[in-house]
Amino acid sequence: MTQTEPDDPFAEIRSAVARLCDQFPAFYWRQLDRDSAYPTAFVQALTQAGYLAALIPEEFGGAGLSLSAAAAILEEVQRAGANGAACHAQMYIMGSLLRHGSEAQKKQYLPQIASGALRLQAFGVTEPGSGTDTTSITTFAEKRGDQYVVNGQKVWTSRAEHSDLMLLLARTTPKDKVAKRTDGLSVFIVDMKKALVGGMTIRPIRTMMNHSTTEVFFDNVHVPTENLIGEEGKGFRYILSGMNAERILIAAECIGDAKWFIKKATDYANERRVFGRPIGQNQGVQFPIARAYAQMRAAELMVKHAASLFESGRDCGAEANMAKMLAAEASWAAAEACVQTHGGFGFAEEYDIERKFREARLYQVAPISTNLILSHLAEHVLGLPRSY
Ligand SMILES: Cc1cc2nc3c(=O)[nH]c(=O)nc-3n(C[C@H](O)[C@H](O)[C@H](O)COP(=O)(O)OP(=O)(O)OC[C@H]3O[C@@H](n4cnc5c(N)ncnc54)[C@H](O)[C@@H]3O)c2cc1C
Question: What are the start-end ranges of the H helices in 139-234?
């Protein structure tokens, strides 16, 4: 399989990331998966190497790299069999702060995030009662003097136990009192250490893969007004503006996963001999792997296209969403082909396939499910009636 394009501008970054990931071999991830533990050492190594600050501008201590470079980093992490979900949000959550925060907020937080002194990797948007329907969230931040008092609940707040700061979306005006349902939502930076002694509770949710996800309860949590990002009531737009980067980066991770599965499947199909010949000599074994490869390469083009639109400041909503959908489907096709190629051994923990298989499945659901991408395309690209 082609490992890198001959003219890949990120070849050096890719091999440096691959070398870093080599220090965290399969048994490291296997053990964490068994224990549902957080990959602290891996995240520290990525932070120290500056990769998680890839998108933070140099003036704030980051690497000031392009979205394509950040995508290459995350793709390589997944391709090495590691799991960037433990920290990928650190790359893109800060985008809301960078684009909409005040100069004082940027100076206060971004250099510390870049150095690793502070981790901003918890993103509190989803709630149990509203699910995908974000404008129906009910967590409320009521302004009282120089504080907002937050009450409510978030769910699926990943990495909350491993983050110093949370980017929180809350209502500041009830939905029935705003002209547009997207109005009246605000974004805050929550200092989690302070909140934990001031009414915030985090409860881990055990999931089918090791993801450090949680539910978070707010009981009269005080957040200073200076922690409001941008203008009160405009938070939905701020969150949306970060979503294209998130979609593109996660799509790149899916491409990395697909490459990992395809390599594993191909190697095994060449090695494993049954009926006196390699199983890969059978077209019934070859074709699903070849099809997954074609799907992955097509999705990879869409990821690159979406990233280049993003970098040139053009609208890339449809492309970012398509990239994420196609890449998640390609990684799932590759995962499926990999398990099937390995037969019974695909289910054995020591082959790592079942672990990656569980991890890869997430990306057809989060950060946005395939149905919602299709309805976005139907409405905003094809001009079909809004379905919800
Ligand atoms: C492991 C994990 C980690 C996550 N991490 C985070 C995080 O860090 N921060 C965060 O804020 N969120 C996070 N999420 C939430 C995730 O991004 C989804 O937004 C969320 O799971 C969707 O809500 P729901 O599960 O209640 O699904 P629902 O909204 O109940 O949807 C259920 C199903 O119905 C479908 N559906 C719903 N409405 C429609 C419609 N109108 N048309 C067609 N189909 C529809 C959906 O596509 C989905 O398949 C995470 C989720 C998971 C599972």
Answer: 192-196
- Under 8 Å between Cβ of 172 and 232: yes
Domains (range + CATH), the chain: 11-115 (1.10.540.10), 120-233 (2.40.110.10), 237-381 (1.20.140.10)
Report, as residue numbers or ranges, the catalytic residues: 246
User: Whose Cα sits closest to atom 23 in ligand 1?
Assistant: 131
Residue closest by Cα to atom 13 of ligand 1: 156
> Whose Cα sits closest to atom 12 in ligand 1?
126
Query: 131 CA to middle of ligand 1, Å?
Result: 5
What does the alpha-carbon distance between residue 171 and residue 218 come to, in Å, rounded to a whole number?
13
Q: Is the CB of 275 under 6 A from ligand 1?
A: no
Provide DSSP, 224-246: EGGGEESSTTBHHHHHHHHHHHH
156 lines ligand 1 (CB under 6 A): yes
pTM (predicted TM-score): 0.97
Instruction: Kindly give the confidence (pLDDT) of every residue in the chain, 388 residues in length, as a single tens digit, with 9 standing for 90 and above.
Output: 445 677 899 999 999 999 999 999 999 999 999 999 999 999 999 999 999 999 999 999 999 999 999 999 999 999 999 999 999 999 999 999 999 999 999 999 999 999 999 999 999 999 999 999 999 999 999 999 999 999 999 999 999 999 999 999 999 999 999 999 999 999 999 999 999 999 999 999 999 999 999 999 999 999 999 999 999 999 999 998 899 999 999 999 999 999 999 999 999 999 999 999 999 999 999 999 999 999 999 999 999 999 999 999 999 999 999 999 999 999 999 999 999 999 999 999 999 999 999 999 999 999 999 999 999 999 999 999 999 8
Best substitution site from 119, 121, 132, 358 to test ligand 1's pocket, by max atoms within 8 Å of Cβ? 132
Q: In angstroms, what is the span from residue 133 Cα to ligand 1's centroid?
A: 9
Q: Left, alpha or beta for 171 (phi > 0: left; psi -120 to 50: alpha)? A: beta
**Is 207 near ligand 1, meaning CB less than 6 Å away?**
yes
Spell out the residues 6+ positions from residue 277 whose beta carbon is closer than 8 angstroms to its own: none
